[in-house]
């Protein structure tokens, strides 16, 4: 028998233990300590009061980490992490956990649920489709290293994220994923920095990135070459730079990254479904 409830009173030690077990056979390593997992969830804007777990005899065996924000004009939540401990799979744990979460969130006027899934994870995609999710967007994740580094004649300029305003005019801003929208990033603004190149008539390009790792979470440009110069400067300062979730509807940015020897490391789908009260 499983019990389903929010995670707001569950310790990060217990959550991390379940997280490590659930991802022990995943495509990428997820061996995080309680403190590391807590930081990752805070960066994603996860609210444990609106996240849910499946428990058996007091032990956490499955989880849904949720971030809530306004997205595409709706009150929505984003699944920032889902997992079930291997020995509890095949027992409808995730399906019932999602159904429980849906009921709770719909009562709080949440209109839509979003998630991301690796394209090679066909089993998960089929499960989400059975639950009523459909694909909305496709993302590519890139990784760059010193191969793309180049000494630039003019350094980029830097600003704190909390003080930066995205250029409103003549700037092609790459539409970020749910987790990287400005309202979510502003919950922990101290974790991000902005690098930009200035032109005579305004900002030519900018990148918002995690200041510890250099991972790029937002970008925009008027001059594509200026954006490339920022990427090159980032990989000259950090050992490896991840460019997260570039929407495939921006082929010029994909081609720019490839031309700079960034390697494609993953492809994901964004999927969503409406919630029913």
UniProtKB/TrEMBL annotation:
The keyword Membrane does not apply. PROSITE patterns: GNAT. CDD domains: NAT_SF (cd04301). InterPro entries: Acyl_CoA_acyltransferase (IPR016181), GNAT_dom (IPR000182), YpeA/RimI_acetyltransf (IPR050680). Pfam families: Acetyltransf_1. Keywords: Acyltransferase, Transferase. Residues 2-153 form the N-acetyltransferase domain. SUPFAM superfamilies: Acyl-CoA N-acyltransferases (Nat). PANTHER family: ACETYLTRANSFERASE (PTHR43420), N-ACETYLTRANSFERASE DOMAIN-CONTAINING PROTEIN (PTHR43420:SF47). This is GNAT family N-acetyltransferase.
